Amino acid sequence: MGIPTTGTEIALTGLGGTEVVTTRRSAPPAPGPHGVLVRVEATGVSFAEVQMLRGRYPAQPKFPFVPGYDLVGEIVAVGSAVTGWRPGQRVAAMPRTGAWAEYAEVRDAELVSVPDGVDAGDAAAMILNGVTAWQLLHRAAKIRSGQTVLVHGVGGGVGVLLAKLGVAAGVRVIGTASASRHEALRDIGIELIDHRTEDVDARVAELAPGGVDAIFDPLGPESLDRSWRLLAPGGSLHAYGSSATLHDAGPWWRPYLGLTRRLARWELARLLGRTGGRRARMYYIRPNAQFRTDLTELFRMVASGQLRPLVAERLPLESAARALDLHISGSRTGRILLIPGLPGSRRGVTAAGCARHAKPVEARL
């Protein structure tokens, strides 16, 4: 299996909306000593790419560049120093950028094997979103069966999997989402709050009078203040983004400075014994050994039928601009995927009503 002479890739050419999304042809690189060239079978659309359009993603490359946070595909060539991987193997990786292409180079140390029989799209939906959800639940919060958690933005890619994995672990899940998403989420077995029409604090206090054991919040600094007040004694708050600040003016790092200040203040109070054992932490996914261990476990769960991601849409790679529009609009619940070589769009696993377009609603992860 040789290196192809050309392939399609999607590039962001500058700041703006989806008008800066460009399809182009380029020669795939020969892999470096520890590089592996992968023919991409599926890659995800995430909130990270939405932030990159606006120059608000931490440490994003200079324009123009190929985005794409995660991928699943088949190895077509390996570098001279690569051992343990060979052409023909199916693999997954999280390169953070570069995955929106027919062919992508990934370092050998970042690869995870994809089991036979696991759909490429289902596997892709487990990489960024699945590992984030798994680590938030089991490594950060260390949640236990019988406990109660609150998931803000439960209709997003991470939120759906937080709910599914929480329910699978015997956890009671309360989730916030706009009403348009509720139908697609009901079968998961969670308690839903419409954050647009209901008083979230009052509803959580009604459902969990003693507070909740863990809160997962991707919204940003102001939301953290409200979340902190909803924790039970000994509970934990986990911030993993700042999606509500997408349209704020100023540098990309300003919201994270606000997050850091709040977390530092609460940690000092905890150390002084003034929080009733409550704690707050920032989470950020890293493609390290823990990541590979956790992704392998998620693939096992998918292969065995214990877990199935919610895939909202599968679109051709060349439809990346449309995929971003759908993501931004909030008219889909679950992961939107790009499939190189797909001749036309086809609906993924979705519920009735997800196909209807809506006005822009909530930022999705």
UniProtKB/TrEMBL annotation:
Protein name: NADPH2:quinone reductase
Domain of life: Bacteria
Ranges for domain Enoyl reductase (ER): 16-338
InterPro entries with a match to the protein in the record: ADH-like_N (IPR013154), ER (IPR020843), GroES-like_sf (IPR011032), NAD(P)-bd_dom_sf (IPR036291), Zn-ADH-like_protein (IPR051397)
Secretion signal span: none
MF annotations from Gene Ontology: oxidoreductase activity
Sequence intervals crossing the membrane: none
